[in-house]
Amino acid sequence: MLATPRRASATRHPVSLLRRALTLPLMVLSFSLLAGCGQDEETSAARDEASEKTQMQDQRLRVAMLQPPRSGLNPLTDDAFKLSRWSTAETLIRLDADGDPQPFLATEWQQLDPQTWRFTIRPDVTFHDGTALTAGQVVASLTAATQAVPKPRILDGVEMHIEADGENAVIVRTADADPLVPNRLSSPQLAIMAARAYAQAGHVDPTRAGTGPFVLTEINGIQGATLERYDGYWGERAELAGIDADYVPDGTARGAALRTGTADVVEAVPVSQVALIDPSLIHEVPMPRTNTLYLNTVSGPFQDPALRAAAREALDRGAIVRTVYEGRADVAEGLLGPALAWASELRQPLTQRTAAAEPDGTRITLGTFTDRAELPEVAVLLEQQLEAAGFDVQQEVRQYAHIESDMLAGKFDAFILSRATLLDSGDPVAYMFSDFSCAGSFNIAQLCDPKIDAALAKAGDLPPGPERRQAIIAAEAEILKADAAIPMLHERVIQGESVRVVDAVRDPRERELINEHTHFVQAADAH
User: Which segments constitute the Solute-binding protein family domain (predicted)?
Assistant: First the structure.
């Protein structure tokens, strides 16, 4: 017989039934707890990520600057380049890597005739004090630059008049045809500032007066400056909360700040410090900067062209590069270095050079400054080379702020200067005019030569392109023949950056350093 199937429900022990009844709710509860844990973990991860982003946005960057301001951060002076490097002051035009003009506070421009240009002003831009960028304020700001004493270098030899053309454009007129007007308007010394900057006669205050992603909130004399993120910026919001800038003229101290992490970005790390620093913190950029020996042509021994030639012949440029710069520089063949590749391609050997005379113990004063750590070392080596040739050399070395006026007044027979050759317009004619023309405002050599002025005028009248470049090299040749400026080497900028820093700008022209994209690496990316 087949056995009758047993009905579990009728025969299972009551305890088993109870256990089964309890098991299902417990399983449901376990799954619920697991799901809840997963959700909590996801929520926690999202919370952590949001917290990290907030912390990143609240971080401030510490930068060690090479030199203190010379004029209280007056934007009409060389101090303008600090304002530009901190991204607080902006210009109508900016230059790209090739030196070609690009839109900035002006969105477009056109040349109406050889002496007239029209620039359209970017709409919906506010200054850091909340006032609006208008054509009228552009006129007022640029006019202040044209009337400044002394004028910004970029306006040397340029007569410029600016007027509004409606509410959103300005007309720029020059006395002579000038193909480089857009380039000139890219100079940090022609930054557009709010009306409050000019409120006090004879003084320009850049505090809360720019248009950039960072607002300058505090100027602490020659000690430092404080900047905060400007949330009303017309472009992308800055990733950093702010910038704390300290002026550290001593090169050893700047190197130590990088090594110890007390600074996140360091300007101009001295060559002598590089070997002591982790290589991952060092970034070397070829730059249009020439270390030049200027000789006084109107007073003292170097009025004599033959003695200037003797100084030229005494120089051993290679020895300076090898010893002082430890090979981190390029021996100069002319005023314009390898940052301008076309210069070496166009340059021809100089002929008809003045013959050198015997110095016979001629006494000369040689000056330079301490702000660039290599220059006093160059002076020591140069003194040895000149004395080996028969000169009697007396050195005078001070901080730049304390020596500039004497340098420009021609109180030295010879002066060593590290000079940026594309600093202002992205075109070397402005530098050559400033340093070597009869009307130049930075003419350390006191040079005035009709042939040089004619060569510079010819180059300056030509539009950008091959013909202008050839004329620039011809002007360089005339300057070199005078032996008023003896180029020794072309520097490379050595910039220090913490491994935590992302997108600090390595700019050969030294116009940019920290911008809206600069930030710190996130913790997850640091490992």
Answer: 101-441
Smallest Cα–Cα separation from 106: which of 196, 181, 189? 181
Rounded Cα gap, residues 450 and 119, in angstroms: 35
Contacts of 333 (CB under 8 A, 6+ apart): 344, 347, 487
pLDDT at 430: 84
The one-letter amino acid code at 244 reads D
Encoded tokens for 225? 């400056």
Tokens 């017989």, located at residue:
1
**Residue 501 · residue 220 · CB < 8 Å:** no
Q: Decide: 289 and 346 in contact? Cβ < 8 Å.
A: no
* Opening angle at CA 393, ends 388 and 394, nearest 5: 155
Cα dihedral across residues 137, 141, 142, 148: positive or negative: positive
- Consecutive H or E run containing 378: helix 374-388
- Identity (one letter) of the amino acid at 33? L
Task: Report how far residue 300's alpha carbon sits from residue 493's, in angstroms, rounded to the nearest whole number.
Answer: 34
CA-wise closest residue to 426 among 143, 196, 211, 181: 181
Average of per-residue pLDDT across 477-504: 96
Q: Taking 80 as the threshold, does the pLDDT of residue 150 lie above it?
A: yes
- Cβ within 8 Å of residue 5, ≥6 positions away: none
The predicted structure's pLDDT at residue 503:
97
Beta carbons of 134 and 166 less than 8 angstroms apart = no
**Quick one: DSSP state of residue 86?**
T
The half-sphere exposure of 406 on its side-chain side, counting CA atoms within 13 A, is 18
- Strand (E) positions, 399-514? 414-420, 485-497, 501-502
Helix axes 305-314, 374-388, angle to 10 degrees: 110
Q: pLDDT tens across 418-435, in order? A: 998 986 788 898 899 999
pTM of the model: 0.71
Q: Token pair of 13, please?
A: 């022990």
Taking only Cα atoms into account, the Rg of the chain, rounded to an integer number of angstroms, comes to 31
- Residue count of the chain: 527
CB 286 within 8 A of CB 421: no
> Strand, helix or coil at 137?
helix
Q: Which two tokens stand for residue 73?
A: 């951060």
Measured distance CA(160)–CA(146) in Å, rounded: 7
**Mean pLDDT to the nearest integer, 324-353:** 91
**Percentage above 90 pLDDT, the chain:** 72
Residue 292 CB contacts under 8 Å (≥ 6 apart), including other chains: 332, 335, 416, 417, 418, 419, 485, 486, 487, 488
